Task: structure prediction
Amino acid sequence: MKVLLEKSKNQQMPIEIIYLSEKGLITQRTIIVNEVNENYMKVYCFRKQQIRLLKTGNILSAAMPKRKAKFA
Result:
């Protein structure tokens, strides 16, 4: 997961994460990572359409976004 977060940061590439909020809600978000430290990440969240500060320990999974199939 760490490699994917770094790739998002270095290439400004969107990734999808599953995140556990402080209120205990599990959400799926598409983000671009701006900064990463040991405990927090500053990201652009497409769901909220703003910069957010997320706890790295609350990221349950990270993956490349699913691409829509192209039909001829």
